[in-house]
């Protein structure tokens, strides 16, 4: 089944915004100047961060994997409170399932934006 890229971009926009925000956040933590940030746009790439060249390999790696770290923590914070009633079968509500979906969605959408 063919799914147009614009449709995927529109559906996954929260993940794109958090992904780019994480890159920018790690740049700021390591005091790497950021020239331009585009959190969301319809096109390829869906978002990007332009920053100064990083010579320190550790800082470069951390800026690169920052979205993985932030998305994993954010996904866990969103999904864990909702997962407890679902897995204990203690009257889960539709909101619980929505929060689990959003928590997993953050993690599952990450690889396409590397």
Description:
- The protein is mainly α.
- Helix content is 62%, strand content 8%.
- It has one domain (5-113).
- The chain has helices spanning 5-11, 13-29, 57-87, 94-109, and strands spanning 34-38, 48-51.
- Helix 2 (13-29) packs across helix 3 and helix 3 runs antiparallel to helix 4.
Write the layout of secondary structure elements.
Blueprint: H1 5-11, H2 13-29, E1 34-38, E2 48-51, H3 57-87, H4 94-109
Antiparallel strand pairs: 1-2
Task: For the structure shown, list the relevant keywords.
114 residues, mainly alpha, two-stranded antiparallel ribbon, 2 strands, disordered C terminus
Q: Structural class of the helix and strand makeup?
A: mainly alpha
Radius of gyration: 16 Å
Distance separating the two termini: 23 Å
- Label the overall shape: flat
Question: In short, what is this structure?
Answer:
With 114 residues, the chain is mainly alpha-helical. It has four helices and two strands. The chain has a two-stranded antiparallel sheet with strand order 1-2.
């Amino acid at each position: 089944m063919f799914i147009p890229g614009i449709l995927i971009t529109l559906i996954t926009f929260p993940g794109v915004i958090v992904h780019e925000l994480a890159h920018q956040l790690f740049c700021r933590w390591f005091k790497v100047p950021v020239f331009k940030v585009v959190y969301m746009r319809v096109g390829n790439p869906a978002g990007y961060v332009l920053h100064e060249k990083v010579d320190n390999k550790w800082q470069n790696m951390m800026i690169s994997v920052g979205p993985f770290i932030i998305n994993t923590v954010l996904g866990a914070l969103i999904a864990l409170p909702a997962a407890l009633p679902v897995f204990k079968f203690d009257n889960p509500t539709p909101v619980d399932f929505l929060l689990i979906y959003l928590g997993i969605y953050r993690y599952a959408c990450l690889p396409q934006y590397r």
